[in-house]
Amino acid sequence: MKSSYASRSDFQKTYLPISWLPSFPHILPHRIRRRLRSKVRSRQSPSTSLASLETSFSPADTLRSLRTHRWSFYDGQYLILIILNVFSLSIIASPGPLFKTAVSTLALLALILPITRQFFLPFLFIATWLIFFYACGFIPSDWRPPIWVRVLPALENIFYGANISNILSAHKSTFLDIIAWLPYGIMHFGAPAVCSIIMFIFASPGTVPVFAKSYGFMNLIGVAIQLTFPCSPPWYENMYGLAPANYSIKGSPAGLARIDELFGIALYTPTFTGSPMVFGAFPSLHAGSAVMEALFMSHVFPRLRPVFVVYALWLWWATMYLSHHYAVDLVGGSLLAGSVFYVAKAKFLPRMQPNKMLRWDYEYKEVGEDPTEQGYALADLGNGPRDVDDWTIGSSSSISSGSISPVDDTHSLWEGETLASHSDTESRR
């Protein structure tokens, strides 16, 4: 008698022919693609998720991370960001409330979803700087301090014996204009993204979040200094001499106006004329950005340090040749960048490990200055192991000046390390 129960074969999947789908050509041959996939997979360790990315869309994971997070002094950074964003959004007159509400809603949504939080949380510091910088144009002149016109030229002569910016910009040519325009008007805006992509691939996991937060903090501090200590740039001295300045004066593209004229475009003239920070000469955030990028890239690629130094010096010269900054502005911006970098390096920046080429090669992460190295070992005195996750300045799975291994018995439950992921083990402690 035939059984009334269905056999397993009755439930087998039915495969439909899909030969009608179009075949898309690949740029790389199949053999090369197979070798690349094999090489990447061979580098991935099954015992660790240190280099993996968060793929969860569940807000519950974010709430769990917040509940298990160990709050510390360093979390005050987010209170600063909240205050700056509330102030900026409340003072910005255009765009209107609907647009600002939509942007705020999208930002909160990006922070709630783990898959977007790992990218947006480090970028939040840069976004806050950009919003704060734009909001400076809406601050009433009655709230602002007087503009210092004679301070920077005087310091220039005291420290260097001459106005270096005027000396470098005295001899102009189309060739020099283009050479100065490349780092100041093009590379400066794309360098942070390029550096982030390179460091994401070749640096220790967690390096990019520290870079993004350091870059954002440096620019936030720089804009705050420019707002409370407004100084006139070299182009103002060339146009108005040392006459007193006021906030009704429009900005100037200075040497970049020759680029607009050369290419027949209106790019830098309207941009700098409508700048929200006309008298933000000191410190130079162009110089600070170049130095910050050079320091982080030198941390990842020590042998290429001369290349990064040349890039920073190239941009230094461009800022003075184009009459946008004095030499003392460049020194101030560079000192600011160096201070932020070395604080991050001593406390939060993952160390590079020998014989590790890609992020997928790392099975554990060492954070902070190496105690065996001379120079900054004193920064680790009195600091015991400390849990740090993506809600702090560093990324998750971090111990200051220490290391965690996925095969360590004391840390058998490895914290899932992503670009800036939450701690997977704090909820289990």
Question: What is this structure's SSE topology?
Answer:
Blueprint: H1 30-43, H2 59-68, H3 76-91, H4 97-112, H5 114-135, H6 151-160, H7 164-168, H8 174-202, H9 207-228, H10 234-240, H11 257-263, H12 268-273, H13 285-300, H14 305-321, H15 327-347, E1 365-367, E2 387-388, E3 398-399, E4 402-404
Antiparallel strand pairs: 1-4, 2-3
Helix pairs in contact: 3-5, 4-5, 5-9, 8-9, 8-13, 8-14, 9-13, 9-15, 13-14, 13-15
Question: How would you portray this structure in words?
Answer:
With 429 residues, this protein is mostly helical. The protein has 15 helices and 4 strands. The chain has helices spanning 30-43, 59-68, 76-91, 97-112, 114-135, 151-160, 164-168, 174-202, 207-228, 234-240, 257-263, 268-273, 285-300, 305-321, 327-347, and strands at 365-367, 387-388, 398-399, 402-404.
